[in-house]
Design brief:
Largest sheet: 7 strands, mixed
CATH architecture of the largest domain: 3-Layer(aba) Sandwich
Helix content: 40-55%
Radius of gyration: 20 Å
Structural class: alpha/beta
Shape: globular
Distance between the termini: 37 Å
CATH class of the largest domain: Alpha Beta
Strand content: 15-25%
Number of domains: 2
C-alpha cells in the first residue's frame, strides 16, 4: 500500500526528548497554548494521545492550571476513576474512620471485604508521609485483590494507582496532597461548564477513526509504547507498532512525538530509552538524543 495526500507539504514531524514527565507536560501545554493563541487553532482541533491511561493525570492538571478547557474522549478524568476514588476513600478513613462518604464508598465493595479493609485501616499510622501511607493501604488491605494484573482493564487500573502513589511523593503532608486533589476536582467542576471547544485527551486506542489538525503523541519510550507487556512477544510488539501508526496518522497538519529520560513510577525513578519504533524509523539516533 502506498500512502498519498492531496495536501501541500506541511510542517516536519517534531520529535522532542525531555528530561522527565513534568518537562514533557510543560512542553506540550506551552505548545498547545501557542497553537491556540498565535496560530488560530481551535482547542477542539488539538489532541494529546497516550498509550497508558494513567498518563492523562499530569496533562489534565497542567491544562487546568493553564486555563485551557479539555475533555477526556472515551474515558473519565483521573480523579474520577473508580480505583482512584476507592484508594482515596481508604486514605481519608485512615485520617477519620467515621468519614461517612468514604465509609459509604468502601461499603460498596461488599460487606465482608469492607469490614476487612476498615479493620486494616485502623492499624495504619496516619502520620506517615503521603506516599508511605498510600503504600501501606495497598500492602495491608485486601483492596488490590479485586484487580487481576493479567486482565487488560485491571492492569490499566493498577497503572492508575501507581500514578497516584507517584504523585503523593511530591507532597510533604497528607493535607497538602488532599488539598491539591481538591483544587483539581474544583477544576473539574469548572470544566463541566458548556465550553464546546476543548483540547482532546485520549488513549491511542480511543483515537481510531478520528483526525485532528495537531496531534501530540506522548510517552514514546520502551516500556510505554511499546508497552512493557509487549516487549518479549513478537505478535504483541507488532500490535504496538500498528498502534503507533494509528496515533501518527491522526494528525492532519502538525505532529509532535515526545519521550522522556525518566519517570516516577510507584514512587521510584525509572529510566527509559526512546521507543524502539522511533529508532527503527530513523527519527531518533544515539547522537540526536539530548536532554
Amino acid at each position: 500500500m502506498k500512502l498519498w495526500t492531496d495536501k501541500e507539504k506541511g510542517e516536519e514531524v517534531q520529535v522532542v526528548g525531555l528530561e522527565n514527565d513534568e518537562e514533557e507536560s510543560v512542553f506540550v501545554i506551552s505548545t498547545v497554548r501557542t497553537l491556540i493563541e498565535e496560530e488560530g487553532y481551535s482547542p477542539s482541533e488539538i489532541a494529546i494521545l497516550y498509550r497508558v491511561n494513567a498518563q492523562s493525570r499530569i496533562f489534565e492538571e497542567m491544562l487546568i492550571r493553564a486555563g485551557i478547557s479539555y475533555k477526556i474522549y472515551g474515558g473519565v478524568r483521573f480523579y474520577e476513576r473508580k480505583e482512584i476514588k476507592d484508594v482515596l476513600a481508604c486514605l481519608r478513613l485512615v485520617l477519620n474512620p467515621q468519614e461517612k462518604l468514604s465509609l459509604d464508598r468502601i461499603d460498596k465493595l461488599g460487606k465482608k471485604r469492607s469490614h476487612a479493609i476498615q479493620e486494616k485501616l485502623k492499624k495504619i499510622e496516619p502520620t506517615l508521609a503521603p506516599e508511605k501511607l498510600l503504600q501501606a493501604i495497598l500492602d495491608k488491605t485486601p483492596y488490590l485483590e479485586l484487580l487481576d494484573p493479567d486482565d487488560e482493564a485491571d492492569a490499566s487500573r493498577l497503572e492508575n494507582i501507581k500514578e497516584l502513589v507517584s504523585v503523593a511523593h511530591s507532597f510533604a503532608t497528607i493535607q497538602d496532597f488532599l488539598d491539591t486533589i481538591a483544587l483539581v476536582e474544583t477544576g473539574y467542576e469548572q470544566e463541566d461548564s458548556k465550553v464546546e471547544a476543548r483540547v482532546n485527551l485520549m488513549s491511542i486506542h480511543a483515537a481510531k477513526g478520528l483526525e485532528f489538525r495537531a496531534v501530540f503523541v506522548v510517552g514514546l519510550e520502551d516500556g510505554n509504547l511499546p508497552h512493557t507487556r509487549s516487549l518479549t512477544n513478537d505478535k504483541s510488539l507488532q500490535e504496538e507498532r500498528r498502534l503507533l501508526y494509528v496515533a501518527i496518522t491522526r494528525a492532519q497538519e502538525r505532529l509532535y512525538l515526545t519521550f522522556v529520560k525518566r519517570r516516577m513510577v510507584y514512587g521510584r525513578t525509572q529510566y527509559y530509552l526512546p521507543s524502539q519504533f522511533l529508532t527503527e524509523a530513523g527519527l531518533v539516533t544515539d547522537t540526536s538524543i539530548t536532554f
